[in-house]
Amino acid sequence: MKTILYYFSGTGNTLMLARLLAEELGDTEIINIAGCNDSTPDRKADAIGILYPVYACGLPKMMCDFVKNNLAVKADTYVFSLTNYASFGGPASLHQLKDVLRSRDRKLHAGFGLSMPPNDIMICGAESQEKQTKHFSEAAAGIKTIAQTIRERPENYFYHKGRIPLFLAWLCYKFFFWYCTREFKKFYVNNNCISCGICVKICPTENIKLVNERPVWGKNCEQCLACLQWCPAVAIHRKGIPETRSHYHNPTVKAQDLIKDMQR
Ligand SMILES: Cc1cc2nc3c(=O)[nH]c(=O)nc-3n(C[C@H](O)[C@H](O)[C@H](O)COP(=O)(O)O)c2cc1C
Ligand code: SF4
Ligand code: SF4
To answer: Domain span at residue 125?
Structure first.
C-alpha cells in the first residue's frame, strides 16, 4: 500500500510532519512540490497526501496551483490532506482544497490538522523552547492517531478544530493576496550577509538573485519566509519589524533537506 506525500514548506514544520507520518505509514515517498510537475508521472500510489502550512486561512498559492494543474491523481486513489498552522484556519483551507479537487472531478476523502510553532515574523517571534517542545510532542502523538485513521480509509473524515466562518476566512485570504503583491518590497538585507546563497537556493519560487553578492527579491513571492528564517547570518529582515525579533525554523530539519527535496 504505497503512499505519496506531496508537501510545501517554508520553515520545515510541514516536512517534519511528513517525515513522522511516513514513518508511521511505511512505504511512503515524500515529494517537495517546489519545481514539481507531476502531470505525467509514472509514480503509482494507493494513497496521496497533500501537506501544507495554512496561509491566511487558506492554501499556499503554490500548493493550490500544483493541485489544480500538476497533481496526477487517478479516480480510485485515496486522497487525504494534513495541514498545519499556528492556531486557526485549518478547516477553511481544507474546504478550499476540496473545491480545487472537485473542480478536477476528484475527491478529498479525509482532512487532518495539527498546530505547530508559528513562523510568521510579521506577527511574532519564535516560541520559547518549552512551547516548541510541547508543540512537537503533541504533534507526534497526533500523527499516530492520524496514521491509524488513514489506514482505515474513511470516505468523509474532516477535523474541525480552529474553525472560523468561511466568509471571514475568504476575506482574510483575499487580503493576503493583495498584501503579497506589495510586500515583496519589504525584505531587506543588512551587513551581516556572508553571501552564502542559501536564500537563493531555498526560495521555492526562485524569486531571489544575488546581485553584487547580496540578495535581490523579485515579485513572485509566496511569503513563505524561508529566505528570512533560514539565513544563517540572520541578515534578512522586514521593514517595520524589529531586527531583534527572534527568527524560527524547525529544529529537526536542515535548509539542505528542503533544497535537496526540490524537484529542480
Ligand atoms: C504568510 C503566512 C501566513 C500564515 N497564516 C496563518 C494562519 O492563517 N493561521 C495560522 O494559524 N497560522 C498561520 N501561519 C503560520 C504557519 O501556518 C505555521 O507556522 C506553519 O507551521 C509553518 O509551516 P512551515 O514551517 O512548513 O512553513 C502563517 C504563516 C505565514 C508565513
Ligand atoms: S542566506 Fe543570508 S547570508 Fe546567505 S546570501 Fe542570503 S542573506 Fe546573505
Ligand atoms: S522570496 Fe522569500 S518569502 Fe518569498 S517565496 Fe522566496 S523564500 Fe519565500
So the answer is: 3-167
CATH number for the domain harbouring residue 118: 3.40.50.360
What does the pLDDT read at residue 262? 84
Which ligand 3 atom sits nearest the alpha carbon of residue 225? 3
209-225 mean pLDDT: 95
Decide if pLDDT at 38 tops 90: no
- Is the shortest distance between the CB of 231 and ligand 2 below 6 Å? yes
Within this chain, do residues 117 and 211 fall inside the same structural domain, yes or no? no
Q: Provide the number of structural domains found in the chain.
A: 2
What does the pLDDT read at residue 187? 94
Is there a domain that residue 172 lies in? no
Q: Is residue 203 lining ligand 2, measured as CB closer than 6 Å? A: no
**Does residue 19 sit in the same domain as residue 111?**
yes
Dihedral of alpha carbons 13, 19, 24, 27, sign: positive
Whole-number Å distance, alpha carbon 42 to ligand 1 midpoint, is 32
